[in-house]
Write a structure and sequence with these properties.
By secondary structure, the chain is α+β, with helices and mostly antiparallel strands. Helices cover about 25% and strands about 25% of the residues. It is built from nine helices and 15 strands. It has helices at about 5-10, 15-30, 40-55, 60-65, 90-95, 125-130, 275-280, 335-350, 365-375, and strands at about 115-120, 130-140, 155-160, 165-175, 175-185, 195, 205-220, 225-230, 245-250, 260, 265-270, 280-285, 290-295, 305, 325-330. Strands 10-11-15-14 form a four-stranded mixed beta sheet. It has a three-stranded mixed beta sheet with strand order 1-9-8. Strand 4 (about 165-175) and strand 5 form a beta hairpin. Helix 2 packs antiparallel against helix 3 and helix 2 packs across helix 5. The radius of gyration is 41 Å and the shape is elongated.
């Protein structure tokens, strides 16, 4: 053939469709008749329009690459805004405004939205895992019309306004001359079809709301905010489209004894000063059953006793966290005469009847602070 369409657009013969489209846009902005009215430029614009019409169509491009005439069935039209080149109008508008209308009707079938439900569980269920039955209220496929949206015995029909294209066109005048714009068909909303008799059960949506019961497996080690994904258990899409996903968000209920920090558990045990001094064993109901916490003689208030491997199971990886027991020593506030006598005898035996007290570094008594103030320190 005499015309080298690849050379007209300035692209290689192995250029991709994206490269061909970019080259056409660049040339269209430079050579459009309303931008450059020179007659030679208009002829050049017709050439690039014809070249793009051929190279952007896979069938025409194949005929051209094999040496045939891809425009012979169109009466030899060479692009422009005639009958042969009108198919590229949206690409010309895209070259100037950066957007192009979506061709073809919209599908009535679309993917559904994801859904989320909150699930409250106990601490031991989070620590060791469990299974729960949950009720979800989501959209499901309408059983009456099987998602088609039409009443039984009827079907969707081609829209007589847009003839199934899903869009209608309108010619207006602008600085480009006569410009054709497309918009979704107002009668079929861009679907290309209409449903004369909608399904009475779903009103033509192809889906209805229903309450279902699902069994969810809760893995050991989940924490507040953990989300478990159930693929395909969310909302069914319009037109009976594929369902989205369901996310189960875990909320752990407070425990009466333990406080969770990561995979470790913490609790506080309160003992009298005599038990802290002499030592004792305190029974504690853990997640694994009853155990005795060994309080060694001389235990101080605020001291921590770890019970390894008695915490929450690690969500990722093996093993468990620890159970940390915090000791709080109480001092008696009321003593009877006998208790006070015995305690005073103990103080005398220990030489503590007149304790001087020990100050930590950086701490001073009242008189020391007053003395420093008068001395100007």
């Amino acid at each position: 053939m005499a015309t080298d369409y690849y050379a007209v657009l300035g692209v290689r013969r192995d250029a991709s469709q994206d490269e061909i489209k970019k080259a056409f846009r660049r040339l269209a902005r430079e050579l459009h008749p309303d931008v450059n009215p020179d007659p030679k430029t208009q002829e050049r614009f017709k050439e690039i329009n014809a070249a793009y019409e051929v190279l952007s169509d896979p069938q025409k491009k194949q005929v051209y690459d094999l040496g045939g005439d891809p425009l012979s069935q169109q009466g030899g039209a060479a692009g422009g805004f005639g009958a042969g080149g009108f198919g590229n109008f949206s690409d010309i508008m895209d070259a100037f405004f950066g957007t192009a209308s979506q061709r073809g009707p919209r599908s009535r079938t679309r993917r559904g939205q994801d859904a989320m439900i909150r699930l409250e569980i106990e601490l031991d269920e989070a620590a060791f895992g469990t299974t729960k039955d949950i009720q979800v209220d989501t959209a499901v496929v309408c059983a009456t019309c099987n998602g088609e949206g039409a009443a039984p015995g009827t079907a969707a029909q081609t829209c007589d306004m847009c003839r199934g294209r899903g869009e209608v066109s309108q010619v207006t005048r602008s600085f480009l001359g006569q410009v054709m714009t497309s918009r979704p068909c107002p009668q079929c909303q861009g679907f290309g079809t209409v449903v004369p008799t909608p399904c009475p059960e779903c009103a033509g949506d192809g889906r209805v709301r229903s309450r279902r019961t699902l069994t969810v497996k809760i893995p050991a080690g989940v924490d507040n905010g953990t989300r478990i994904q159930l693929a395909g258990e969310g909302e069914v899409g319009p037109g009976g489209g594929p369902a989205g996903d369901l996310y189960v968000e875990i909320h752990e209920l407070p425990h009466s004894t333990f406080q969770r920090r990561g995979d470790d558990l913490h609790c506080t045990v309160t003992i009298p000063m005599t038990a802290a001094s002499l030592g004792t064993k305190v029974p504690l109901e853990t997640l694994d059953g009853m155990e005795e916490v060994d309080i060694r003689p001389g235990t101080q208030s605020g001291q921590s006793i770890p019970l390894h491997g008695r915490g929450v199971t690690h969500l990722r990886g093996g093993g468990r966290g620890d159970l940390i027991v915090h000791v709080e020593v109480t001092t008696p506030t009321k003593l009877d005469a006998e208790q006070e006598r015995v305690l005073r005898e103990l103080a005398i035996l220990r030489g503590e009847e007149r304790p001087t007290g020990q100050f930590q570094p950086g701490q001073q008594g009242l008189f020391s602070r007053l003395k420093d103030a008068f001395n100007g320190r």
